UniProtKB/TrEMBL annotation:
It comes from the Bacteria. Transmembrane segments: none annotated. Gene3D superfamilies: STAS domain. This is STAS domain-containing protein. One of its GO terms (molecular function) is anti-sigma factor antagonist activity. It comes from Candidatus Aquicultor primus. Residues 1-83 form the STAS domain. Pfam families: STAS.
Length: 112
């Protein structure tokens, strides 16, 4: 899905060792098309474990190799806690509009 020339992956349900590969594959497909702006929306996730976070870190690394950026949106209370240890490694934004602005302007997000 693309919004304002920014591609978006939307995650639902739970992202654990059983489903993290699906998230990684969805991000890899988008990045593999040469995309340089990716938003991962996790507002509909109820749970994420280290394998899901590792998939996002992998995607961030791959997109940065192409000169792009990945921004995560939709952190809620439980997910916010899971992201705290990765605050310096994953950019986050409060909304899709904020993420689009960041990706369009090159501005950096607030980090944990």
């Amino acid at each position: 899905m693309a919004v304002n020339n920014v591609n978006m992956v939307i995650a639902y349900g739970e992202c654990d060792i059983c489903s993290a590969q699906l998230l990684k594959d969805m991000m890899a497909d988008t990045i593999g098309e040469g995309e340089k702006k990716l938003v991962v929306d996790i507002k509909n996730l109820r749970y994420i474990d280290s394998s899901g976070l590792a998939a996002m870190l992998w995607a961030r690394h791959k997109i940065e190799e192409q000169g792009g950026r990945l921004v995560v949106i939709g952190l809620n209370g439980n997910l916010h806690r899971a992201f705290i240890p990765f605050g310096d490694m994953l950019e986050t934004a409060d909304s899709l509009n904020d993420a689009i602005d960041m990706l369009g302007s090159g501005a950096e997000s607030a980090r944990f």
